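Researcher: Next sequence.
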Amino acid sequence: MSVLPIRIARLPKAELHVHLEGSMRPSTVGKIAARHGVIVTEEEVRRRYAYQDFVEFIETFKWVTSFLRQPPDYAVIVRDFAEALLEQHVVYAEVTLSIGVMQLRGQDPQANFEAMLEAAEDYERRGLRLRWVWDAVRQFGVEAAMAVVEAAGRCHSEKIVAFGIGGDERSIPARDFRAVYGRAEDLGMHRLIHAGEVGGPENIRQAIEHLKAERIGHGIAAIRDPALMDLLAERRIPLEVCPASNICTGALALQLGTDAPTIEQHPLPKLFRHGIPIVLSTDDPTMFHTTLTGEYENAAKMGLDKTELERLVEMSFTHAFR
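Model: Next structure:
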């Protein structure tokens, strides 16, 4: 039986940390692969959507995105994604796009993006505002990250609200990307980064001190550094917390130093009650077998009461970039 109050489930919500490519349902993966002459069964996709650790997840992400080859492919997943959001009473989302992957594969990000915007128009009319985060891949390096920023600048789209970096945070220090984030700031883009997911709290500090990050993707490593928790609370820097993702990738096990932690052991309540802004999110919803409604259910399982859950809903609107 659900522990989430019906009123919370029905409230209009915002989603601020969600990867479009990580929202592909198994049936959609098969449909897009077939467009390119590749046969992929739903069973195979489901088998791939199971991970022992973060590295396995990255490999699966690379595999599933390999079928996204042309602008119409991206239009298909936007429509599926938008329908799923509307079903959950989501009215606003900041959606991360793996532009770094598109560029690595020789695609034209602007052409892909234009197809996505066209696909999103019907949903905008139905009450779902979609805004976009152009994302680089950390392990691809500084030059590739700068190319993502410059491509975003050439689009001149007010619907691109931020630049971020995902991928393996252990690969290259955040401070190496200072010039990239400076350029993003010059272009009027907000600044995000994945940090403190599978890396330590020092990665979060670097993101704040060297990159002027305005929100931190995941950030659960902050639980290991009380002084950092104080800093995040004082500066009102939100953590984009994705509980189901943290379980599936092994990130929570890494941060807690324990095998097979349960959702009830997640540090979200402690971080939230310390005064750190939390924007509850799904990350890669279908790849982590979750929904935004499911994440609020998880927060309720962690012991957050109705008032705290309502506050979580409010925070995602408060800390949105539009």
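Model: The mean pLDDT is 96. The longest strand covers residues 90-98.
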